[in-house]
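Pair request: fold both.
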Amino acid sequence: MRAQLLLTIVLSVAVAGCAGGVGNGSDETTASLTKCSDNGQVVYGVDVSGYQGSNINWSSVKAAGRVFAFAKATEGTGFIDSSFAHNWPGMRNAGVLRGAYHFFRPGTDGAAQGDYFVDQINAQGGLAAGDLPPVADVEVSDNVSAATVIARLHAFLDRVQARTGRVPLIYSANFFWGDYLGNPDFSGYPLWVANYGPSCPYLPNAFTDWKFWQYSDNVTVSGITSGGVDGDMFNGTLDQLVAWAGGGTGSGGGGTFQMSRRVANNADGRLELFARAPDNAIWHDWQDSPNGSWDGWNQLGGVTPNNPVVAANADGRLEVFTIVNGHLYHTFQLPGGGWYDGWVDSGNGNLTGEPAIIANADGRLEVFARDTGGALVHAWQTAPNGNWSDWASLGGVLHSDPGVGRNGDGRVEVFALGSDDRLFHIWQNSDIATWSDWAGFGGITLQGTPHVGPNADGRLEVFVTGSDDKLHHIAQIPGGGWSGWIDLGSFGVIGAPAVGRNSDGRLEVFARGSDGGLWHAWQNAANGDWTTGEKLGDAQLASDPDVGANADGRLEVFWLAPGGNLETTFQQVGGGWFSVVDFGGNLSAF
């Protein structure tokens, strides 16, 4: 990163046990730069900003062996990097694992900087599955005290994590973190350390390990024609980097949240899906590796007449929920691997239908369901990954199961059909702890469960089947308020739709057509208008579809076929859709 402090000091300190070094202006050799990695293996990347211009050929960068990159997005609360609009989609399109960094200005409010940073990422399509976490570039004091820097940095990191669901990286160097800040303990955040010269990075005392190392500010990389660029490495293998980048993608991402109900990403990015068998037990199948092949069906147990719903905890562990005899039951992955042996009864006794689950901005899961009187009730984790509250009522008279989304500012919002079969919603107030009153949208009458998707700029969009058996949607508009109802597509619909978000930020909706086929419609551009839709292949559906995003961002759609087997189709690398794949299973519901 090209900033005043790091360019004025070149460190030549070598950690005990590491000799030799890499001087500025020289490229690395694998032998000299892997000594201090955890397992003797590293992968290489770069970090860029407007200094490198807006014409980087990212395909050439990747071909040169630089598999990841960080691009400057913002600085303070009033500067957007001139090359970010080119770099952010360009990295993704070339298959480079991408990250965005913010040059932190301690003289400015930390939370305001966090909002500014995330807003600009969202404006370019937002964080997608498999993206690297957002970065705080901490290297200047702005002539404020160390205590002020630390306090405002905490505020920045808290806001970014709340809005993206990702634990940010900290970029800094020992001389600034140690000598100026006094080695404050931020060990809960991964470190990207800047240190030019030694063959092992010299770490601030507050950190015991490094995730990334900026080892030079002057390496030559094909595809970057402006001259020398910052060289970086990741502490581990490419598979480890991909897995680490996939962490939290199920519910994270600058206004993004998990839209699917029976498909979710594991912490390493692998998709896992859940369905119900004829004996009413829950079964699941999962990818063996991110973007990879599938393991085969395995029984998860339980006996339920209702469909399962899955969500990802803040630490990436999946948790599955279902309603049985009015009670909510759930089971979950264990921290060390495997699943909890059994199902936990979360009480209530008056629940009906299918619940909806979402991660709050701080990572706490919250579940919403109808009770037998039609009211919306909810319960929530009292801490991320933690125990659950008692049930509380949000009132209302619901004629559908709820759909739920999270606004760009982190507030949860719930949607359901009211007693007149029109759409109503209720939302968390700015304090998060209290809720608004119910409000109606009016307009057309509807049927089935509403489904919610986040636009790239954080605006929510709601999709629901009308009483005319056509798909309709309504969206938040920039500056506040909602649009009117808009017809979506020229095709008839059976059941409820499913919503996914492409890696470039475009929403895409899938539904079972009136002809039993799989239909889809998509935005022409992120935050933009919609196609009229088209039929996708010749599959026949016996259930509503669901959609998940692979670790590399490619969407994959799942449905139950008439014979009881689960089927899928997925976006191919380079474009287009793969032919239908039969997963087997002999299932009764999905």
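--- second member of the pair ---
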Amino acid sequence: MLFGLSTLNLTLVHWFFKNKGSNIKLIGSGQFGGDSTPDIVIENITTGEKKIWIMSYSAGSFTISSEVLVTTDAIFSIVGIGDFNSDSNLDLVVEELTASNSPLTNIARKIWFMNGTSKVSEETFLTFVQEWRIKGTKDFDSNGTPDLIVEQENVGRRGVWYMTGSKLTEGFIFGTVDPSWVFPHQ
């Protein structure tokens, strides 16, 4: 979600990193609060609690105007943001968490369809081995639906899973890099 940031979003990201706690993971930003100010989606990596910070921007400063707890299943982690059902509301992409150390353990990937800050439904779009992890979203094929940036953990292979709505249509590996290179919000 950090790709293609505007100046306002870059200012928001700077504010976030200056003000967040060490146990808070930035998922991304988007307009969940119904205004033009980007809001922040976060997850507490200690408790699993997920929130949307509804932000206000005035006179060059950001403030949290409200904090909305996203009521979810605790065994899932938010890994991406995008409008997957073309309803003009941003949705959340999640991956199942598991205690298994085996890279070949199958885990579910879901889209939580949102109406503003409320989850209204969900759909499992893929159950696949956990060694492939979703790292972000961006519409690479210009079909109006965000695609998923993926990484094969500990190997460094990176690719794109192309989506049409909530359906995975194709996968593409675009390269292998040193596994120590990480995506900025991970």
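Observation on the second member. The radius of gyration is 16 Å.
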